[in-house]
Amino acid sequence: MDHRLVATLDMARGFSELFVNRRAYTIQSLRPHPESGRHYYYRPKAREGGEPVELTLDTVRRHLAGELTIGIYAINPSTQRSKWMAIDADYKQALEDLIKVQRQLQDDGIDAGLEKSRRGGHLWFFFETPVLARDARIYIHHVASTLNVHVKGRGLADGIEIFPKQDQLRPEEFGNAIRAPLGVHWGARESRGWRDWYYGADYNLDDQFAYLRGLNRVQEKHLQRMIAGKTFPEGSEDCVRRVDPSEPIVSRPGDFRILDYVEVRRQVGRNWVARCPSCAAQGHDRSGDNLAILVEEPRKYICWAGCTAPMIRAALGRPIPDRRSA
Ligand SMILES: [Zn+2]
């Protein structure tokens, strides 16, 4: 089945104006991974070993046309700001939670558009001018906390995921990308792609764009009024102390410590979070959060994608010694 539609550069301009915060982007592999069957996202390069290419209007047009599928980043690192906020929910009660959040936003004077996804959806709202990622995140954490909607953390139960996922980025960082709306989705088990649309309009590009343009955009001063005097609510994952990755970690010679080899991104609950070296060796875990290292006992670590300790050690060039031959 063919998912291609006619998309124009004007549509691509409209899309960029709404969604594009920076020129870095990801693209979904058209070929499934031979083992997992998943279509992973990666940052496209013009040639092997070269610099990643930047997003162009024609690439956006091809995304809308269904020729390829892109992922977009939430934060512009030069301003730490975002044009939008997206709430991703993909679990049994996902739609109920999203509709609760959408209603609360409406009460706060914010139009949010609900985009369908396989098991749940993405709820999007837009800012009149880009706002600090941290401000938007404080607001939505309070909404979730008021509604008793759980925000997903590492190793915790189901919950919503909030984009931007970071308060701020260092210049070399990208944060987490989200699948760009209005394109084709390639899943793990399906042999073909499909389109997910916003519920609020007919399922064609013209009507979807008209719908998105019609959503009111939140003014920064309105957002600031709503979070005046607030920080992250008690108990949210962002409440925990940030780890300073430059803290030296002393280890005895010959003693393997995972923290000597990975760069800690942040602390979530009882874990430090980092890019899994084994995933990284295969070009995966670009969001850099697959590896969880127990803060209290940093010898204990786990890759959420399923890499084993021997795989991780091998990827670091420090294979686990074979005791029988030692
Ligand atoms: Zn891994």
Number of helices: 8
Counting DSSP E segments of at least 2 residues, the number of strands comes to 14
Please give the CATH class of the largest domain. Alpha Beta
CATH topology of the largest domain: DNA primase, PRIM domain
Measured as a percent range, the helix fraction is 10-25%
Uncertain spans = 238-252
- Could you state the order of secondary-structure elements as H and E? HEEHEEHEEHEEEEHHEEHEEH
Strand content: 15-25%
CATH architecture of the largest domain: Alpha-Beta Complex
Query: What ions, cofactors and ligands are bound?
Result: zinc ion
Instruction: Report, as a whole number of angstroms, the end-to-end distance.
Output: 58 Å
Secondary-structure topology with pairs:
Elements: H1 9-19, E1 25-28, E2 41-42, H2 57-65, E3 70-73, E4 81-89, H3 94-107, E5 113-116, E6 121-132, H4 133-147, E7 161-163, E8 177-179, E9 184-186, E10 193-195, H5 205-214, H6 220-226, E11 264-268, E12 271-274, H7 277-281, E13 291-294, E14 301-303, H8 309-315
Antiparallel strand pairs: 1-2, 1-3, 3-8, 4-6, 4-7, 5-6, 9-10, 11-12, 12-13, 13-14
Helix pairs in contact: 1-2, 1-5
Residues 276, 278-279, 290, 303, 305, 307 line the site of zinc ion.
